[in-house]
Amino acid sequence: MTIDIISVVPDLLSSPFAHSILKRAAEKGLLQVNIINLRDYTTYARAQVDDYQFGGGAGMVLMIEPLVNAVESLKKEKIYDEIIFLTPDGETFNQKQANSLSLKTNLLLICGHYKGIDQRFRDHFVTKEISIGDYVLSGGELAAAVLTDAIGRLIPGVLNNETSALTDSFQDNLLAPPVYTRPEVFRDWPIPDVLKSGNHKLIEQWRYEQAVQRTTLLRPDILDSK
Predict the structure, then answer these.
(1) Strand partners, 185
(2) pLDDT recorded at residue 111
(3) CATH number of 2-152: 3.30.70.260, 3.40.1280.10, 1.10.10.10, 1.50.10.20?
(4) Please, what's the largest Cα pairwise distance for the chain?
(5) 131: closest CA among 145, 149, 143, 121?
(6) Angle of CA points 152, 220, 168, to nearest 5°
(7) Burial of 224 (0-12, 13-18, 19+ CB in 10 A)
(8) Which of 80, 148, 174, 205 is 20 to 30 Å from 69 by CA-CA measure?
(9) In the chain, which residues have pLDDT < 50?
(10) Cα distances (angstroms) measured from residue 157 to each of 21, 27, 31, 64
């Protein structure tokens, strides 16, 4: 799988993909992440990629020409399944979307910056708009990192234990149950006896009940959406 990310400040993305699971995914040849500097595609002096809004108002806007130049150049090399713009007014990202996007071959993520991007680019090139939450960031780079991490870890072979991703929170519209590891007792706080029983059917039933209980308490809205 390939994820290309267009950014005005590509250095912001140098660290998230250089460590841990996504680094191993790249080393295994399962996920390739390419960071594209939008300034490489502008024809304006001093690598300008933004300008004032028509009609006035605070905040600069990313111009359409550099964005189109970048996308059309990239599309000569590959066909994108989705061209995604990260924006606060997009559809809220969730596990279901991550599952769906992990089945794609090529994704292109567009990081907004300043006040946003020219609406004409959104109208004619963007195929999906995604938000990671109801708040505003300085740019789309952190959101792009979140999407890439959530999607990349679902690619078969990326995680050492492929069943791990299937038991994550939200996979079945439930939060994950509590988990425990050694020691069995710490400061007089023991782990639940059922986890030492060796009865896998009983353990799975306990985990399911805990997941329902935790979801009911913390995120009843998830249960309402089932």
Answers:
(1) 190
(2) 97
(3) 3.40.1280.10
(4) 70
(5) 143
(6) 25
(7) exposed
(8) 148
(9) 163
(10) 11, 12, 10, 38
- Are 173 and 226 in contact by the 8 Å Cβ rule? The answer is yes
- For the stretch 11-22, pLDDT in tens is 999 898 988 899
The pair of structure tokens assigned to 188 is 């007089």
Only one residue has tokens 């599309």, namely 75
- Residue owning tokens 């279901």: 96
- Collect all residues with Cβ–Cβ distance below 8 Å to 46 and sequence separation of at least 6: none
* Three-state SS letters, the chain: CEEEEEECCHHHHCCCCCCHHHHHHHHCCCCEEEEEEHHHHCCCHHHCCEEECCCCCCCEEECHHHHHHHHHHHHCCCCCCEEEEEEEEEEECCHHHHHHHCCCCEEEEEECECCCECHHHHHHCCCEEEECCCCCCCECHHHHHHHHHHHHCCCCCCCCCCCCHHHCCCCCCCCCCCCCCCCCEECCEECCHHHHCCCHHHHHHHHHHHHHHHHHHHCHHHHHCC
For the record, the structure tokens of 41 come out as 């595609």
pLDDT value for 14? 86
Q: Where are the domains of the chain?
A: 2-152, 169-224
pLDDT at position 165, please? 59
For the whole model, what pTM was predicted?
0.88
Cα–Cα distance for residue pair 125/122, rounded to 1 Å: 6
Q: Are 109 and 148 in contact (CB under 8 A)?
A: yes
Structure confidence at residue 5 (pLDDT): 98
